[in-house]
TrEMBL record:
Subcellular location: Nucleus
Residue stretches making up the TF-B3 domain: 2-107
Stated name of the protein: TF-B3 domain-containing protein
Entry's Gene Ontology molecular function annotations: DNA binding
Gene3D superfamilies given in the database record: DNA-binding pseudobarrel domain
Keywords on record: DNA-binding, Nucleus, Transcription, Transcription regulation
Signal peptide from the UniProt entry: none
Stored SMART domains: B3
Gene Ontology cellular-component terms listed: nucleus
Alphabetical list of InterPro entries matching this protein: B3_DNA-bd, DNA-bd_pseudobarrel_sf
């Protein structure tokens, strides 16, 4: 079950990935800080380390993935219109193990200039 999925924007490809505030509930605890690192496995079982951070001040937390995100976006050749999905995966280890996450990329499929769907990225 996805923790969140979204269509990739220009800012997502060039700088950072903005994520829904609800995604914070599925991440490891921040322990009073404004950032937390977590790892996610892609479709090829490659492990990626990301950092989710929130604003230090202000009313809205506005979470983003920064550390690790640009390398991931570059390696996966993400483009505007592609879709990214982060989800909590089953952890085969003990309850004390860090949570397991998965990340999936889907390419936008267009026909005559119109999006007709998505396909798994290769």
């Amino acid at each position: 079950m996805p923790s969140f999925s979204k269509m990739i924007t220009k800012t997502d490809t060039e700088k950072r990935l903005s994520v829904p505030i609800k995604f914070l509930e599925s991440l490891p605890p921040f322990h009073g800080g404004h950032a937390v690192d977590f790892q996610a496995k892609d479709e090829k079982a490659e492990v990626w380390t990301f950092q989710c951070s929130t604003r230090k001040k202000g009313r809205y937390r506005k979470p983003v993935l920064s550390k690790g995100w640009r390398a991931f976006a570059s390696r996966k050749k993400l483009k505007v219109g592609d879709r990214i999905e982060f989800y909590r995966a089953r952890n085969q280890s003990t309850d004390e193990s860090p949570p397991c996450y998965g990340v999936r990329v889907e390419r936008e499929i267009k026909l005559l200039g119109s999006r007709i769907g998505y396909a798994p990225a290769s």
